[in-house]
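Q:
Got a chain?
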Amino acid sequence: MTRDTTPRARRKEHRATPPRRQRDGLVAALDVGSTKIACLIAKEEEDGHLRVLGIGHHRSRGMRAGQVANMDDLELAVRAAVDAAEQMAGERIGQVVINVSGGQPHSTRVDVEMSIAGHEVRGSDVRRIQAFGREQHTALDRELVHCLPISYAIDGADGVLDPRGMFGQTLGVSIHLVSAAVGPLRNLATVIERCHLDIEDRVVSPYASGLACLSEDEKAMGVTVIDMGGGITSIAVFNEGHVIHTATLPIGGQHVTNDIMQGLTTPLAAAERLKTVHGSCLSSPSDNRELLRVPQVGDDEEANVHEVPRSMLIQIIRPRLEETFELARAHLDASGLRKIGGRQVILTGGASQLQGIRDLAEIILDRPIRQGRPQRIRGLADSVSGPAFSTCAGLLRYALRHQVETPESDTTAEDLAGAGPLGRFARWWKENF
């Protein structure tokens, strides 16, 4: 048997080494969804902005409701999307930032406080208190995805954005923890590893979509993002510039397609086409007169085609979308975040492009609705600039911001010198005495 010596195979042989940053400022985002796999490769330019170099997307196989259903099928789909992006970019990638939509992501807010004995707050103190916050996550069956500081406090005075350089007796922080079930996360990680890629970071899907679609003013004032995917609908609430809550609902665009397939007894592909081309949430006087050609399951599509009024299609689509928005409203009410989430709701995701969906959402959610699409990224083609690619674009923005805000940025020369055992002991002695 011949040995695979491709660059991707050679990367696999060196998996024992820890993941490293992409060379030359490259970042790669991989959106693994229930209906499509999307990969974007970008590079940070001298002015700090991103330029997309490679784009790849492929129909998703092996995913259901945000979770891995068939590893082999999903691996092939991921490979196809990544290879297309690599060929367009002319670069090979070794690490990707991926989205997390399965595993029922759950949000928790914790408050942590520690003594700093009156000395100046250093970067090491900030990292230490964040580590204390991570320790509040104790569920063995769930894995921590995010540990996001919301605000700091010095001697009980909260509202501090960056405590480094300040003095006080105690340092406190309010942290947003997001966790997900261990099994689905490990299944997805296994598929990514089988594609000879390392996971550089993970981001829950609605958080990534918000980073792509929202302006800084919207995040500061308070806004709710509803990301309508194929298998699930996810929610993120932003306030004062931070994401403070995320949730998922087990309903998405595929449920609408399945309803059409069963209601009109038509193949899945035909149901998807009817939804995309002729579907709507709102009726009009002409719907009863407009006839649609609907092929029947198991019959020759050309020989046995039924004609149904468009009004019948709308009657099938609308109840499922009403259910989706009612579930979103009920969740926001139950969590007490309806007011904190601001007066505006941003709809994004592939399923949010259905005709009339904004009007229906405004009726049920009683909020102004804006359709969210990725804010302009250099080199991002118009074909992938729609709401369906919000999550993938947001992963790129997260990766860029993470590189800028990496803990290495506040590592001092003293910290670098303390990399060894003696240095760590000296740093501990100075911090505590």
Notes: The chain is about 35% helix and 30% strand. The first strand starts at residue 26 and ends at 32.
